[in-house]
Protein: Calcium voltage-gated channel auxiliary subunit alpha2delta 4
Organism: Sparus aurata
Amino acid sequence: MSGVESRMEGRDVGMRKLLGILGFLCLWITAQAQMKIPPETVQQWASVFSVQLRELTIKYSGSLLLQKKLKDVESIVKIVELNGDDLVKDYSDEIERMLGSKMKSVKRLAESAEDADLYHDFNATLEFDYYNSMMINTVDEDGNSLELGGEFPLEENEHFNNMPVNVVQSDIQVPTNVYNKDPNILNAIYNSEALNDVFISNYQKDPTLTWQYFGSSTGFFRIYPGIKWTPDSNGVAAFDCRNRNWYIQAATSPKDIIIMVDISGSMKGLKMTIAKHTINTILDTLGENDFVNVIAYTDYVRYVEPCFRGTLVQADLDNREHFKILVDELHVKGEAKIKNAMKEAFKILNEARANGQGSMCNQAIMLITDGAMEDFESVFEEFNWPERRVRVFTYLIGREMTFAQNTKWIACNNKGYYTHISTLADVQENVMEYLHVLRPTDGQSTHDTTSAWTEAYMDTVLFNTKAQSLLLMTSVAMPVFSKKKETLSHGILLGVVGSDIPLMEVMKLAPRYMLGAHGYAFLITNNGYILAHPDLRPLYKDGKKLKPKPNYNSVDLGEVEWEDTEERLRTAMVKGQTGSTSLNVRASVDKGKRPLYLTNNYFYTNIDETPFSFGMVLTRGHGSLMFVGNVSVEEGLHDLTSPDLSIATEWTYCETDIDPAHRKYTQLQAAIRYLLGKEPDLECDEMLLQQTLFDAVVTAPLEAYWNALMLNDRVEPGVETAFLGTRSGLMRLIRYAGVETRVAKKFLTPADKDNLFTVDHFPLWYRLAVENTPGSFFYYPVNDKGVKFIIATTSVTVSSGGKTAMAGAIGVQMSLDCLEKRFWAIAKQPSDTDCTNIEGVCPLSCESADLNCFLVDNNGFIVLSKERNEVGRFFGEVDGSVMASLIKMGMYRKVSLFDYQAMCKNSHHHASSARRLLSPFYVMAALIRWFFSNALMFLLDFNFCGLWHSDYFVDAHKQKKVEALQPCDTAYPGFMYDTSVREANSLIKCGRCQKMFVVQAIPDSNLVLVVTQADCDCSRQYGPILLEPKEIKYILQTDRRSCSAPCWTQLCPVTSCHDRSPAEFLYKRCHDRFIII
């Protein structure tokens, strides 16, 4: 028994120990749960810190002084309400005049080129040396100039962004695959020498002209001013002007094209390779005003894209590239039966014409085959004869000529053109032949109605030079025809002349200062694609390199103005209407991180003689009001020359580009010389200059105030820069700290574009200030590649006649040390604190390891933390549990934002959702891409599709290649603080502990103080809340749209359509160069 008792006693002792441990744990957990952060202590910290922070920023910014000076001048200022209807008309008229002058220059080139050809007789033995842009200024191993090279003087020119050019001579570029001494080439180059004088004359008449050129139908390219052409890394000049959009659009009228390709067994091997290359080359000749579909046939008819059955889709860049991917997957089999495929093609084109769809102009079928054996005449009798509205072009593939006669007969009896393509090298030249048939005129029309304008255009040649600001442009082009009597009625195309217009220069005609902090101007094409918009982002970063996005010139207005869900704005502008509308929008600033709710008033109208529409935005409220002051030139000039003052370098105060002698002046220098009367010929914006002078006078006392602080008072360490800006683009700043000790060395330097007045936007600190309460400072953190600092900014106003307008913004930049020093000194209670009436932890200190303390701004970004690496990060990433509670309490609310110009890794579907609402391709592309991303995953090996975040969607396979970036749509959250909720505190249950937090708004600021319990880890229960964008995945089953219900893109009416010539009935040759049927 003693053994049993001993065991029982041991068991009791063990049980008592276990109960003791459990009791201790219960007490410990209870202690953890009962840890209380006194809200009144946090409130006191917030109140004291608010006072000190406000005193600091007011003192070193001088905001009260500036507001007082504005108050003093209220009796002599006038506040005007901007009339958007009048402004949009004035600016569009200016743009119309500018573009009209470019058209006149191009018209002179076209007429000169035609006259030169008229008086030239072809000379098969012509010997003629010309400047080949590849050969100039290059010597061989013996030091001798290369043939067709020689010395060609080049000088850097400011107007051409300091590129080395020759402004007295043009030169010639010839593609590597074109023989540069071919008789046709030499005769055409000899003729085009006459253009050189016209180039120079145009440039003298209009010094704002940039590149002028002539693209010959024989393949060479004459460019002015002359440049040294840089080949690719293999020494090849692959550039062929005939493939450029400006050439194609000028050389042809809008068209509907059905490409029919034979994929029967006889097309295997090289034939199929040639056929695919032919299709791709045809697709490359199409543009946004064209419509297309591709049909493959054997003994049955197959649409390469089943979702496009029986319809036409717009031939924009996305659609063309999509077709190329599908064509590459074609495989041969079976026996060719052309009859049913031809019937299907005619049905598509006839229905489009009958329903008023497609281009409503030229229609053609492109037949690609190695032979036609059937009796197909009945098809043409039923669908195309006798009117022959649809032209048929035939491309005989391969070396065999057995069925050449049948293929030729099809083209010749349907007003088309027949070509034989036996090798890959033949494709380019032979495909181009159809452009001579679908010419935009019969050869007798004037050039008044045949100008072509391109979409936004990025010159790849200039992209690799210093001319970065000339990247985005539009081109105006006109066709050049033979006017010789014997071929006049044939409409023989000699080539295309054109000129580039930098879109930045066009947009400068809508002065930025008139539009306000959040206002802007934009241009779109008749297809709804953006030419210029401050939110257009044509480049992306691939590693360390900037590259053009694949779809940079086909970004739809609906992808940027995505709040236009009913398409009122887009529809009206595409139709070329004049009017206005209003939208409540979710805008964003600071690289999309900070959402803003704005009401935008849109005003729009068309630009005559172009396919463009112009729009502008004035934000309701302060964006529609501006004040006008008046001071004498003498008084204003004195202050305008202050060393602390600058004006917006990208704005046009005075036009310095008209007279080459003025190009050496900065905008400030030009303005001062004009006001002094030293340059009376300068064209200047009188209203802007007057406002700039007034602002210079009103803000002048700040220079003395800031300097006095430096001289008479010890500037607090960490306060580095004070600054101000006005609506006129004027800025003043003072550096309290030297460059050696300054943390923010880049801030407000020329490289700091985000914080300067540019042609696209006001400074970030200005835009944030005007949306905040005037006089109350807005604080936000900056993380510039690891360099972290704080900016405080506030707006100043002026009132008159019962109206209040924003006059500008003023602020101070300081280091983190400066803010931390004050905050940590305040956020702790001394050890002798009287804790009698305080319920909770006392004394309380943010320095304690038991607490985490944060200053967080109104968008949820950390301004101050114990951990420096957390500054600038979103608070939800650092503490998801507290942020989730604040969102649930309503202290922060989520704002859904979208980016339809994003780049994702291996995007499964790269069309934008906005587009799917606008055209049949956009609707169907989503469905196709869903199909490929869910069913044909092997296409991923071709970098066609993929995901941004692997944890957001399920990976269906293992990648075999380096992930590439592709255009995609993304959604991402932003957050905004609800100012009606000033304080909050709560407990968060996190497993074995409860986490307490207290949040208190910092008065007179956009900041909140967050104090949390540090020793309760909730990361297992609450994951981080991230701002990272998630790719939008469009799934067939849930999409309300379907392939069977396409929505056609609304296009501007075609102003000129040339689809046939009476002379065609006089000629029957359809397979010789330059002879038109």
In short: The two ends are 122 Å apart (CA to CA). The mean pLDDT is 85. The CA atoms of residues 656 and 664 lie 8 Å apart. The chain has five domains: 62-82+627-821, 91-248+445-502, 254-438, 510-621, 842-905+970-1031.
